[in-house]
Amino acid sequence: MFQKLKFFAAVSVVATSALFLACNGQESAQSKTGEKNVQPAAQPAEQPVATKSLVIFYSQNGATKKVAEIFQKARNADVFEIALATPYPSTYDSTIAAVGAQRESKQWPALVNAKADLAKYDTVFLGYPIMFGSFAPPIYSFLDSNDLSGKVVVPFCTYGSGGRKASAAELKTLEPNANVTLAYGISNKRVTAENGSEVAAKEIEAFFADLETGKTDEMLMGGYSEQRPLTAEDSAVFAAATKDYAYLSLKPLSVSTQVVAGTNFLFTCEMKAFGGPAVQTNVKIFRPLPGRGEPELIVVEK
Ligand SMILES: Cc1cc2nc3c(=O)[nH]c(=O)nc-3n(C[C@H](O)[C@H](O)[C@H](O)COP(=O)(O)O)c2cc1C
After folding, report:
1. Å from CA of 40 to ligand 1 middle
2. pTM summary value
3. Three-state DSSP state, 226
4. How many Å lie between the centroid of ligand 1 and the Cα of residue 225?
5. How many CA atoms, within 13 angstroms, populate the side-chain half-sphere of residue 225?
6. Comparison of pLDDT for 261 and 39, the residue scoring more
7. 214: which of 86, 102, 154, 302 is 20 to 30 A away, CA to CA?
8. Extents of the domains making up the chain
9. Is the CB–ligand 1 distance for residue 84 below 6 Å?
Protein backbone atom coordinates (compact mmCIF):
# COMPACT_ATOMS: atom_id res chain seq x y z
CA MET A 1 0.00 0.00 0.00
CA PHE A 2 2.92 2.30 0.55
CA GLN A 3 4.31 1.34 -2.86
CA LYS A 4 2.85 4.46 -4.38
CA LEU A 5 5.03 6.34 -2.07
CA LYS A 6 5.64 9.80 -3.01
CA PHE A 7 8.89 10.40 -1.32
CA PHE A 8 12.22 11.58 -2.42
CA ALA A 9 13.64 11.48 -0.88
CA ALA A 10 28.70 -7.85 12.29
CA VAL A 11 31.46 -6.65 12.94
CA SER A 12 31.21 -7.96 16.51
CA VAL A 13 29.97 -11.15 14.94
CA VAL A 14 33.31 -11.20 13.25
CA ALA A 15 35.05 -10.19 16.44
CA THR A 16 33.06 -12.74 18.39
CA SER A 17 33.74 -15.50 15.89
CA ALA A 18 37.37 -14.49 15.75
CA LEU A 19 37.38 -14.72 19.53
CA PHE A 20 35.77 -18.13 19.39
CA LEU A 21 38.20 -19.29 16.74
CA ALA A 22 41.09 -18.01 18.77
CA CYS A 23 39.75 -19.62 21.93
CA ASN A 24 38.99 -22.89 20.20
CA GLY A 25 42.49 -22.93 18.83
CA GLN A 26 43.84 -22.31 22.31
CA GLU A 27 41.62 -24.96 23.82
CA SER A 28 42.67 -27.71 21.42
CA ALA A 29 46.34 -26.78 21.74
CA GLN A 30 45.98 -27.02 25.47
CA SER A 31 44.18 -30.32 25.44
CA LYS A 32 46.70 -31.73 22.99
CA THR A 33 49.58 -30.88 25.29
CA GLY A 34 47.58 -31.78 28.37
CA GLU A 35 48.82 -28.67 30.10
CA LYS A 36 45.50 -27.15 31.02
CA ASN A 37 46.29 -26.75 34.71
CA VAL A 38 49.85 -25.49 34.48
CA GLN A 39 49.19 -21.91 33.36
CA PRO A 40 51.47 -19.45 35.19
CA ALA A 41 49.51 -17.93 38.05
CA ALA A 42 50.25 -14.37 36.89
CA GLN A 43 48.20 -14.78 33.68
CA PRO A 44 44.55 -14.08 34.31
CA ALA A 45 42.35 -16.88 32.93
CA GLU A 46 40.55 -15.68 29.83
CA GLN A 47 36.88 -16.36 30.02
CA PRO A 48 35.32 -15.97 26.60
CA VAL A 49 31.81 -14.70 27.05
CA ALA A 50 29.38 -16.08 24.50
CA THR A 51 27.44 -13.01 23.39
CA LYS A 52 24.43 -13.09 21.16
CA SER A 53 23.35 -10.40 18.77
CA LEU A 54 20.11 -8.52 19.11
CA VAL A 55 17.91 -7.46 16.22
CA ILE A 56 15.98 -4.33 17.19
CA PHE A 57 13.47 -3.02 14.68
CA TYR A 58 10.40 -0.94 14.05
CA SER A 59 8.11 -1.75 11.15
CA GLN A 60 4.80 -0.10 10.35
CA ASN A 61 3.68 -2.31 7.51
CA GLY A 62 5.86 -5.39 7.54
CA ALA A 63 8.61 -4.74 5.00
CA THR A 64 11.26 -3.98 7.62
CA LYS A 65 9.99 -6.87 9.73
CA LYS A 66 10.64 -9.19 6.78
CA VAL A 67 14.25 -8.00 6.64
CA ALA A 68 14.59 -8.21 10.45
CA GLU A 69 13.61 -11.88 10.29
CA ILE A 70 16.38 -12.54 7.78
CA PHE A 71 18.98 -10.91 10.05
CA GLN A 72 17.58 -12.80 13.04
CA LYS A 73 17.84 -16.17 11.28
CA ALA A 74 21.25 -15.45 9.77
CA ARG A 75 22.77 -14.62 13.17
CA ASN A 76 20.50 -16.71 15.40
CA ALA A 77 19.89 -13.40 17.16
CA ASP A 78 17.41 -12.37 19.81
CA VAL A 79 14.72 -9.93 18.70
CA PHE A 80 13.29 -6.74 20.14
CA GLU A 81 10.41 -5.25 18.15
CA ILE A 82 9.79 -1.58 18.92
CA ALA A 83 6.05 -0.98 19.34
CA LEU A 84 4.22 2.34 19.46
CA ALA A 85 1.88 3.03 22.38
CA THR A 86 -0.43 4.63 19.81
CA PRO A 87 0.16 3.12 16.39
CA TYR A 88 0.25 5.36 13.34
CA PRO A 89 -3.03 5.70 11.43
CA SER A 90 -3.71 3.11 8.77
CA THR A 91 -3.72 5.45 5.77
CA TYR A 92 -0.64 6.77 4.08
CA ASP A 93 -1.69 10.42 4.08
CA SER A 94 -2.54 10.47 7.78
CA THR A 95 0.72 8.72 8.62
CA ILE A 96 2.55 11.40 6.66
CA ALA A 97 0.72 14.06 8.67
CA ALA A 98 1.44 12.34 12.00
CA VAL A 99 5.13 11.78 11.24
CA GLY A 100 5.46 15.30 9.85
CA ALA A 101 4.07 16.74 13.08
CA GLN A 102 6.40 14.60 15.19
CA ARG A 103 9.42 15.68 13.20
CA GLU A 104 8.37 19.30 13.35
CA SER A 105 7.92 19.29 17.14
CA LYS A 106 10.62 16.68 17.85
CA GLN A 107 8.06 15.07 20.15
CA TRP A 108 8.90 11.46 19.53
CA PRO A 109 6.12 8.93 20.03
CA ALA A 110 5.72 6.91 23.23
CA LEU A 111 6.71 3.26 23.00
CA VAL A 112 5.10 0.27 24.66
CA ASN A 113 8.59 -1.09 25.34
CA ALA A 114 10.94 1.85 25.66
CA LYS A 115 13.89 0.09 27.26
CA ALA A 116 15.81 -2.90 25.93
CA ASP A 117 18.16 -4.99 28.06
CA LEU A 118 21.29 -4.50 25.99
CA ALA A 119 23.91 -5.58 28.54
CA LYS A 120 24.55 -9.03 27.12
CA TYR A 121 24.85 -7.96 23.51
CA ASP A 122 27.93 -6.69 21.69
CA THR A 123 26.19 -6.33 18.39
CA VAL A 124 22.86 -4.75 17.67
CA PHE A 125 21.17 -4.84 14.26
CA LEU A 126 18.92 -1.78 14.13
CA GLY A 127 16.15 -1.82 11.51
CA TYR A 128 13.69 0.86 10.45
CA PRO A 129 11.62 2.18 7.55
CA ILE A 130 12.89 5.43 6.08
CA MET A 131 10.47 8.27 6.81
CA PHE A 132 11.17 11.80 5.62
CA GLY A 133 14.65 10.83 4.50
CA SER A 134 15.90 9.24 7.75
CA PHE A 135 14.74 6.72 10.31
CA ALA A 136 11.14 6.50 11.42
CA PRO A 137 10.34 8.51 14.61
CA PRO A 138 10.05 5.42 16.87
CA ILE A 139 13.81 4.99 16.42
CA TYR A 140 14.42 8.44 17.94
CA SER A 141 12.20 7.38 20.86
CA PHE A 142 14.22 4.20 21.24
CA LEU A 143 17.55 6.04 21.12
CA ASP A 144 16.32 8.49 23.76
CA SER A 145 15.76 5.63 26.23
CA ASN A 146 18.70 3.38 25.39
CA ASP A 147 22.45 3.85 25.24
CA LEU A 148 24.21 2.11 22.39
CA SER A 149 27.69 3.27 23.49
CA GLY A 150 30.29 0.57 23.01
CA LYS A 151 28.03 -1.58 20.84
CA VAL A 152 28.59 -2.51 17.26
CA VAL A 153 25.46 -1.17 15.57
CA VAL A 154 24.55 -2.50 12.15
CA PRO A 155 21.77 -0.37 10.62
CA PHE A 156 19.32 -1.79 8.11
CA CYS A 157 16.34 -0.20 6.45
CA THR A 158 13.61 -0.42 3.86
CA TYR A 159 12.59 2.58 1.80
CA GLY A 160 10.53 3.79 -1.13
CA SER A 161 13.45 5.26 -3.04
CA GLY A 162 16.35 5.71 -0.61
CA GLY A 163 17.71 6.97 2.70
CA ARG A 164 20.13 4.21 3.71
CA LYS A 165 23.28 6.34 3.81
CA ALA A 166 21.64 9.45 5.27
CA SER A 167 20.01 7.51 8.10
CA ALA A 168 23.25 5.69 8.97
CA ALA A 169 25.06 9.03 9.03
CA GLU A 170 22.45 10.45 11.41
CA LEU A 171 22.76 7.38 13.61
CA LYS A 172 26.51 7.96 13.83
CA THR A 173 25.87 11.52 14.97
CA LEU A 174 23.30 10.51 17.58
CA GLU A 175 25.36 7.59 18.89
CA PRO A 176 28.94 8.87 18.67
CA ASN A 177 30.22 6.20 21.07
CA ALA A 178 28.78 3.28 19.15
CA ASN A 179 30.59 1.59 16.31
CA VAL A 180 28.04 2.18 13.55
CA THR A 181 28.91 0.02 10.55
CA LEU A 182 28.00 0.02 6.90
CA ALA A 183 24.21 -0.07 6.53
CA TYR A 184 22.03 -2.46 4.54
CA GLY A 185 19.00 -1.17 2.67
CA ILE A 186 16.44 -2.52 0.24
CA SER A 187 13.49 -0.86 -1.45
CA ASN A 188 9.96 -1.69 -0.40
CA LYS A 189 9.16 -2.72 -3.94
CA ARG A 190 11.95 -5.28 -4.11
CA VAL A 191 11.52 -6.77 -0.64
CA THR A 192 7.74 -7.08 -0.86
CA ALA A 193 7.89 -8.76 -4.29
CA GLU A 194 7.08 -12.47 -4.40
CA ASN A 195 10.75 -13.48 -4.26
CA GLY A 196 11.62 -10.57 -1.92
CA SER A 197 12.80 -12.72 1.00
CA GLU A 198 15.19 -14.71 -1.21
CA VAL A 199 16.50 -11.53 -2.86
CA ALA A 200 17.10 -9.87 0.51
CA ALA A 201 18.62 -13.01 2.07
CA LYS A 202 21.14 -13.24 -0.77
CA GLU A 203 22.02 -9.57 -0.50
CA ILE A 204 22.38 -9.84 3.27
CA GLU A 205 24.81 -12.72 2.86
CA ALA A 206 26.93 -10.50 0.60
CA PHE A 207 26.46 -7.64 3.07
CA PHE A 208 27.91 -9.79 5.87
CA ALA A 209 30.92 -10.53 3.67
CA ASP A 210 31.35 -6.78 3.10
CA LEU A 211 31.15 -6.15 6.85
CA GLU A 212 33.72 -8.83 7.57
CA THR A 213 36.18 -7.38 5.11
CA GLY A 214 35.55 -3.89 6.46
CA LYS A 215 34.15 -2.47 3.21
CA THR A 216 32.99 1.12 3.22
CA ASP A 217 30.43 2.75 0.94
CA GLU A 218 33.29 4.37 -0.96
CA MET A 219 34.95 1.00 -1.53
CA LEU A 220 31.67 -0.47 -2.74
CA MET A 221 31.55 2.25 -5.38
CA GLY A 222 34.85 1.01 -6.78
CA GLY A 223 34.91 -0.66 -10.14
CA TYR A 224 32.56 1.77 -11.85
CA SER A 225 33.65 3.28 -15.13
CA GLU A 226 33.95 7.07 -15.52
CA GLN A 227 30.66 8.95 -15.98
CA ARG A 228 29.90 9.26 -19.70
CA PRO A 229 27.10 10.60 -21.89
CA LEU A 230 24.02 8.42 -22.24
CA THR A 231 23.50 6.01 -25.11
CA ALA A 232 20.04 5.01 -26.32
CA GLU A 233 20.49 1.71 -24.47
CA ASP A 234 21.25 3.50 -21.17
CA SER A 235 18.16 5.66 -21.62
CA ALA A 236 16.02 2.59 -22.23
CA VAL A 237 17.37 0.91 -19.07
CA PHE A 238 16.69 4.10 -17.09
CA ALA A 239 13.14 4.45 -18.44
CA ALA A 240 12.28 0.82 -17.67
CA ALA A 241 13.60 0.96 -14.10
CA THR A 242 12.07 4.30 -13.12
CA LYS A 243 8.59 3.95 -14.59
CA ASP A 244 6.99 3.72 -11.11
CA TYR A 245 8.89 6.74 -9.79
CA ALA A 246 7.37 9.52 -11.88
CA TYR A 247 6.87 11.61 -8.72
CA LEU A 248 10.63 12.06 -8.49
CA SER A 249 10.83 13.72 -11.96
CA LEU A 250 14.24 12.21 -12.62
CA LYS A 251 16.24 13.36 -15.58
CA PRO A 252 19.39 11.30 -16.27
CA LEU A 253 22.41 13.39 -17.20
CA SER A 254 25.27 10.89 -17.43
CA VAL A 255 26.03 7.32 -16.41
CA SER A 256 28.76 4.96 -15.29
CA THR A 257 28.56 1.19 -15.15
CA GLN A 258 29.99 -1.72 -13.22
CA VAL A 259 29.89 -5.26 -14.52
CA VAL A 260 28.76 -7.78 -11.93
CA ALA A 261 26.53 -10.82 -12.63
CA GLY A 262 24.58 -8.39 -14.84
CA THR A 263 25.31 -4.66 -14.89
CA ASN A 264 25.02 -1.92 -12.29
CA PHE A 265 24.24 1.51 -13.72
CA LEU A 266 24.93 4.64 -11.72
CA PHE A 267 23.05 7.52 -13.30
CA THR A 268 23.80 11.09 -12.28
CA CYS A 269 20.40 12.76 -12.43
CA GLU A 270 18.56 15.95 -11.89
CA MET A 271 15.63 15.33 -9.54
CA LYS A 272 12.63 17.55 -8.86
CA ALA A 273 10.70 15.53 -6.31
CA PHE A 274 7.05 16.63 -6.25
CA GLY A 275 7.93 19.50 -8.54
CA GLY A 276 10.31 20.89 -5.89
CA PRO A 277 13.65 22.53 -6.64
CA ALA A 278 16.09 20.68 -8.87
CA VAL A 279 18.79 18.77 -6.99
CA GLN A 280 21.48 16.49 -8.30
CA THR A 281 21.25 12.88 -7.19
CA ASN A 282 22.49 9.40 -8.08
CA VAL A 283 20.21 6.62 -9.21
CA LYS A 284 21.49 3.07 -8.99
CA ILE A 285 19.86 0.56 -11.30
CA PHE A 286 20.63 -3.13 -11.73
CA ARG A 287 20.12 -4.86 -15.06
CA PRO A 288 20.22 -8.66 -14.73
CA LEU A 289 21.84 -10.88 -17.33
CA PRO A 290 19.73 -11.36 -20.49
CA GLY A 291 16.60 -13.41 -19.86
CA ARG A 292 16.87 -13.04 -16.05
CA GLY A 293 14.47 -10.13 -15.55
CA GLU A 294 13.94 -6.42 -16.09
CA PRO A 295 16.19 -3.54 -14.96
CA GLU A 296 15.24 -2.46 -11.44
CA LEU A 297 15.80 0.65 -9.40
CA ILE A 298 17.98 -0.15 -6.38
CA VAL A 299 18.27 3.23 -4.72
CA VAL A 300 18.12 6.99 -5.22
CA GLU A 301 20.72 8.77 -3.15
CA LYS A 302 23.64 11.13 -3.15
C1 LIG B 1 5.27 8.64 6.68
C2 LIG B 1 6.16 7.96 5.68
C3 LIG B 1 7.26 8.62 5.19
C4 LIG B 1 8.12 7.99 4.27
N5 LIG B 1 9.21 8.66 3.83
C6 LIG B 1 10.04 8.07 2.94
C7 LIG B 1 11.18 8.75 2.46
O8 LIG B 1 11.48 9.88 2.83
N9 LIG B 1 11.97 8.14 1.54
C10 LIG B 1 11.70 6.88 1.11
O11 LIG B 1 12.45 6.38 0.27
N12 LIG B 1 10.63 6.20 1.56
C13 LIG B 1 9.79 6.75 2.48
N14 LIG B 1 8.71 6.06 2.94
C15 LIG B 1 8.50 4.69 2.51
C16 LIG B 1 8.88 3.63 3.55
O17 LIG B 1 10.22 3.83 3.96
C18 LIG B 1 8.74 2.22 2.98
O19 LIG B 1 7.44 2.01 2.51
C20 LIG B 1 9.11 1.16 4.00
O21 LIG B 1 9.41 -0.03 3.32
C22 LIG B 1 8.00 0.87 4.99
O23 LIG B 1 8.47 -0.10 5.89
P24 LIG B 1 7.51 -0.98 6.80
O25 LIG B 1 6.64 -1.82 5.89
O26 LIG B 1 8.43 -1.82 7.62
O27 LIG B 1 6.69 -0.05 7.63
C28 LIG B 1 7.84 6.67 3.84
C29 LIG B 1 6.68 6.03 4.33
C30 LIG B 1 5.86 6.66 5.23
C31 LIG B 1 4.66 5.94 5.75
Report:
1. 58
2. 0.85
3. coil
4. 32
5. 14
6. 261
7. 302
8. 2-16+50-220, 232-301
9. no
